Amino acid sequence: MQITIKKGNKAIGKARCCNTALSRAFGLMMRKEQMALIELPYESRALSGIHTFLMLFTLDIYWLDKRMKVVAVKKGLKPCRYANAPKPAKYVLEAPSGFLKLKIGDRIAVPKD
Questions:
Q1: d(CA 90, CA 4)
Q2: Hey, what domains does the chain have and what are their CATH numbers?
Q3: Which of 35, 69, 79, 86 is the most buried (most CB within 10 A)?
Q4: Segments in the chain forming alpha helices (H)
């Protein structure tokens, strides 16, 4: 399922919604450049670590709390790498490197379609 991601009132892109165990496990693996918003079962540091095995492009990773506020950022994560979440997160937003210009403290919204 595709969802729209907004910052303020401005749409900043469409993302693949990953809210099941299987979709969370695969994220953007073996897909062309796009974004994915991964929803975790609860806010956690351990569950929000990600890998880029079988990725076809470099990612920027944004960890978000339950209020959709950016709590940590990892830019330029290349394929075949792993990144631990530095802070507990409820969501992980994966985007092609350089596509989004979010920083810690920014808040995004996912309008209900």
A1: 18
A2: 2-96 (2.60.120.1140)
A3: 35
A4: 21-26
